[in-house]
Amino acid sequence: MVMGAAGSKLEKALGDQFPEGERYFGLENFGNTCYCNSVLQALYFCVPFREQLLEYYANSKNVGDAEETLLTCLADLFTQVQVMTERIWFCNLMQISSQKKKTGVIAPKRFVQKVRKQNELFRGYMHQDAHEFLNFLLNELVDILEKESIAANDSPDNTSPSEKTANGHRNVQPNGNHKEPVVTWVHKIFQGILTNETRCLRCETVTARDETFLDLSLDIEQNSSITSCLRNFSSTETLNAEDKFFCDKCCSLQEAQKRMKIKKPPHILVIHLKRFKYIEQLGRYKKLSYRVVFPLELKLSNTMDSTDSEYSLFAVVVHVGSGPNHGHYVSLVKSHNHWLFFDDENVEMIDESAVQTFFGSAQEYSSNTDHGYILFYESLGGKS
User: Fold this and answer.
1) What is the per-residue pLDDT across 139-158, written as a single tens digit (0 to 9) for each?
2) Does the predicted TM-score (pTM) go above 0.85?
3) Which residue ranges make up each domain of the chain?
4) Is it the case that residue 167 has pLDDT exceeding 60?
5) How many secondary structure helices (H) and strands (E) does the chain include?
6) Which candidate in 267, 272, 328, 371 is catalytic?
7) CA-based nearest residue to 377, from 353, 355, 360
8) Among 34, 46, 73, 200, which one carries the catalytic annotation?
9) Residues facing 204 on adjacent strands
10) Active site (annotated) includes residue 34
11) Of 54, 25, 111, 39, residue with least CA distance to 270
């Protein structure tokens, strides 16, 4: 499973520009697991996530935790990438002396088997959705960490079951009283808070409701940008006619204005572009190949305190193909100020300018089918 000449070329290209301990390994595809591989590469190069995962794995080994969960399988996979050196080159005696290879290929077999066991959605060999996989993976990790936290603090106050909210989790006592939620390291990295504000147009009373999110799904339009998509996401909507709002102060249905705002931005901002849209006339989903510019540096200007939160792009999961039911996934990652292209087993360095080729098509019909689908941004202001 050696990349051979391609691996040697990448090794030479990496040169001395990267830290000695960094690894750039391709992942073997088991028929249709490119959706999994592309997300795993993005998460591996999400440094805070990788560090927390490896720390978790080290601690679980220290306490002799033998239970094989999806979390431990993922941590074990990341650990393999960290420590893989001459082992992958052992079949070639001429290269045993090269004990610190930075490149190679790993087969994430145990992890994929665990994913398929945990969720029947991923058991077949049909084309899967990378965003659905990311959503499943993060929520599954949260569930595991919450249960472990509750078990570790086994007492009447925290042995209650957990209850999922729309985008997050909260603990609930058997009598229905809400407790403080368990905040895992997954929450600390990816979770942000949205505020849904509704203002009654009769009495001007503002009703605010907070909800958490691990990623933002944005509607897209032709020849737009992430900034304009975020602006539309936070735009004001008028509720009238059959959609009137029940105002508690007025005790009746009233016209109102509704707006969704980012109250607390996450440390890692994951943006999902809604490229697959159901078309009623066609009776099926269609892929939107729209050109949506995603900048290398992004500012959020719609937070509650009206201050800008600055982010830097470090990974992109790309959907390759013209439709939602077939195609391929690859990923672009930024590591130590250099961009790399991951296509299952194959890894190569690319110029930063190449990122622009994945914005999408300026025209509806184009031969370009490589489109940015999931974007990963890291806050430049430190951890939230």
Assistant:
1) 999 999 999 988 887 654 54
2) yes
3) 4-153+182-379
4) no
5) 8, 22
6) 328
7) 355
8) 34
9) none
10) yes
11) 39
